[in-house]
Amino acid sequence: MPERREARVPVVSCVVLGLVLLCAVAGPWFAPHEASEIALAESMTPPFWRSGGSLDYPLGTDMLGRDILSRIIAGARVSVTVAVYAIALSGGIGAALGISAGYFGGIVDAVISRLIDIQMSIPAIPLAMLFAAVLPPGEGMVITIIVLTYWTWYARIVRGEVLSLRERDFITVAKVAGVSSPMILIRHLTPNVLNSLLVLATLQFGSVIVFEAGLSFLGLGIQPPQVSWGGMLADGRNFIEVAWWLITMPGLAIMASCLASNLLGDWLRDTFDPKRRIT
Amino acid sequence: MRAYLIRRLWQGAVAVLGALLIVFVAQRLAGDPVALLLPMDASEEDFAAMREALGLDRPLPVQFLVFLRDAFTGDFGESYQWQAPAMPLLLERLPATLELALAGLAFALLLAVPLGVMSAVYRGRWVDRLAKVLALMGQAMPGFWVGLLLILFLAVRLQWLPAFGRDGPLHLVLPAVALGWYPVAAMTRTLRSSMLDILDSDYIRTGRVMGLPERTVIWRYALRNAAVPLATMIGVYFANMLGGAFVIEVVFAWPGVGRAVVDAVFARDFPVVQAGVVLSAVIFVVVNLLVDLSYGFIDPRIRHA
User: In terms of pTM, does the model score above 0.90?
Assistant: First the structure.
C-alpha cells in the first residue's frame, strides 16, 4: 500500500487559530468600533464590496447599525473564554477519572465506566436543554453543560490507554520498586497520556465553539448584551430576506475556527501516532 | 447470544435509570415547585399543605421512587403552559421528529454511500479529494448554520423550496439536508476505509479473475461487506439526529419534539423538559439496542461469535 507523504504543518490552521486567539485577547484594541455601539443611521449597511457599503464597516452592519466585524471580534472573546474553561475542566475531570478507572480497575473502574455509559446514552442536546432549564443562563451555564457533555471523551480514551500502559514493564518496575499509587499516576501515567489529551483538546476546541454557538443561537447560551457568534446568527435570522451578511459572516467565523482546530488536531494525532498516517 | 442479549438489556435499563436519576436531581436543583404553583401571597400553611399534597415532605429516596413509578407509566406531570400531561404532548409531536430524522438519514446515506465507494475506488483522484473536502466542511459547519444558508439561497433567493413548517414532502427537503449534513463526513470516511480493506481481499481478486464486471464486483460484492461498519454507525447517527433535530426544528419551525422542548425551556415548563429528556434517552437506548441485535442479520459471521 503506497504511503502518504509526511503531512505538512498546517500553517493556515495555525494562522486562523492565532487570529482567533488574538481577537480574544486583544480584540478591543484593534476592533474598528465598539461592539455594542449603535448607529441607527448606518443600520443594514452591506459589506464594503457591495454598493452602499463602506470601509468604515467592512463586513456591514446589523439592524441597529452595529459593526459586524467588531462584533465578530468581540464574539471571539466569548467563544475562546468558554472553550478554554470548558476544555480545561472537562479534560482535567475526564483525564483524572479515566486514569483512575484504568489504573485501579475493579469497583472504581466499574463505577466510572457505568457513569460514562449513562452519560453517553443521553443525547447531548436534550441533556443541555435540561440544564439550561435549571441553571441561570450565561457563560457559567454554557461551560457547565459542555463539561458535563464532554468529560466522557477524555475519560474513555484515557482509560483505554492506561489499561494497556498498566501492563507495561516500566509500571511493573515502578510498583516493585515501591512507588506509591499517586506517584505512579502522576509521574508515570499522566505524561504518557498527554499526547492524547492534547489531540483531544485541540479537536474539542472546534466542537465546543459549534456547541456554544448552537446553544446561544437557541437563546439558551450566552445572553445579550454579551456578543456571541451564535447569538448574532439568531439576530440575523429575522432579517434573512434583506441582509444576507448577518447570517453568513458569523457563520464563517464559526466555520473557520472549527475547521482550523480540526485540521490542527488531525495533524497532531498523525504526528504523535505514526501508525495512523497511512490512510 | 442469549447471555449477550441479557447483558445488553441490563445495560440499557441502567442507562435509562441513570437518565431518570439525572432528570430527578435536576428537578430538585430547579428550585421549589410549590413556589411556582402557589400565588405570591400564599401563607406558610398553604405551602406546607401543598408540599404534603405533592409528596415533597417525604424523604428524597422515597420521592425518587415515586418519581420512578410515575415515570414508568409515562406520567411526568402536567405541562405548566398547556395544562395537559407532558409526555402525551411530546408523543403527539414524535412522528414529525422521526420523519425529519429519517429523511436526514436518507439524505446522508444518499450522499455518503456513492461518495465513500467512489473515493475508495478512485483513491487519490478528484472524487476522493472532493469527499475529503466535503468531510472537513461537514464537520466544521454547524447544522443550524447550514440550515440558515439553505433558507437564504434556496428559499429566499431562488424560491425553489419552502423554508418553514411541515406541509408536504417539499417542506421536508431543506431541514433534512441541514440535519443530514453532519454525519455525511464520518459515514463517507468509514465506508471509504472499509471499502479499501475489502477491495484488497482475496475474494474480490477471485471475482475479478473470474471475469465479473467491475461494476458487479464493487457494488454487489465489495459494498455488501464494506457496509457492515457503516450499518453499525447508522443507529448511533440516527439517535444523534433525534437530538440534533432539536436545533434544526427551531431553524425551520418544524413542529416536532425538539421545538416543543426548547419552547418549554424558555417557559421554565419543567415537566415537558423532563419528559423530553427521558423520551430521547429511551429512544437512544432502544435504537442502539436494535442496532446491536441486528449485527447478526447484517453479517452472519457475527452470529456464531
Answer: no
